[in-house]
């Protein structure tokens, strides 16, 4: 796949680009109707109607594609029917049809195309697109869609271009290196899919205009320093002020360098090496 540049017919188009969607099998094919669900919008509000996540609202109407993150259909060969676009995520999805006629969507890795055969389970070969327990994956393999607990479904490495590396397996535990650089151990019975996720150039797409952000359901973001003191801790002052304090949220929570992870979180013991912070180096 690649990036297609627009012709500069307007200021908004001058700097805009879009994916060429070359990895999609059929651009006119509609998604599988049995795997669609209505996606209700919440606009960043909780069950009381209060805004808990700012800058959300609007956006294009879309249906949710039900993705099989667990892949527990073992010992049955599945054929890739098509590779499709999913408006709910950055990577592509692939429609599978098992020998029994069951259909399912999965996250599509690089190089997957219509007609390929995939398998799930401990007896599957460690080749691109197959889903295996970590204990059955050779060391040094690239993996994605990784479970954190057996049977819970994939939680790690699910975005475009995402890939982790299988390091080793010992004593019922598997050690992997995540895209952030963090080295973590997981139960070796957790499952992962072989290969790197597709649409690797997604980060190079330039929106070009504010309207494309609104299509995604993102409303304008206003800086705290230009607000009044009643609306933000960094607001107020004569002229342009830097705020006079460390950057923070409207509720006063530090925005840069503040620790957000609980110190006594149970999964901390599973982290062998923390990821590196760009600002402060190695996190502790």
Automatic annotation (TrEMBL):
Q: Which residues form the Large ribosomal subunit protein uL2 C-terminal domain?
A: 126-254
Q: Which residues form the Large ribosomal subunit protein uL2 RNA-binding domain?
A: 44-120
- Protein's UniProt keywords contain Ribosomal protein: yes
GO biological processes: cytoplasmic translation
Q: Superkingdom, according to UniProt?
A: Bacteria
Q: Name one GO cellular component term.
A: large ribosomal subunit
Q: Could you tell me which InterPro entries the record lists for this protein?
A: NA-bd_OB-fold (IPR012340), Rib_uL2_dom2 (IPR014722), Ribosomal_uL2 (IPR002171), Ribosomal_uL2_bac/org-type (IPR005880), Ribosomal_uL2_C (IPR022669), Ribosomal_uL2_dom3 (IPR014726), Ribosomal_uL2_RNA-bd_dom (IPR022666), Translation_prot_SH3-like_sf (IPR008991)
The family assignment reads: Belongs to the universal ribosomal protein uL2 family.
Q: Which HAMAP family match?
A: Ribosomal_uL2_B
How does this polypeptide assemble, per the annotation?
Answer: Part of the 50S ribosomal subunit. Forms a bridge to the 30S subunit in the 70S ribosome.
Q: What is this protein called?
A: Large ribosomal subunit protein uL2
Species: Rubinisphaera italica
What are the top taxonomic ranks of the organism?
Bacteria, Pseudomonadati, Planctomycetota, Planctomycetia, Planctomycetales
Name the gene for this chain.
Answer: rplB
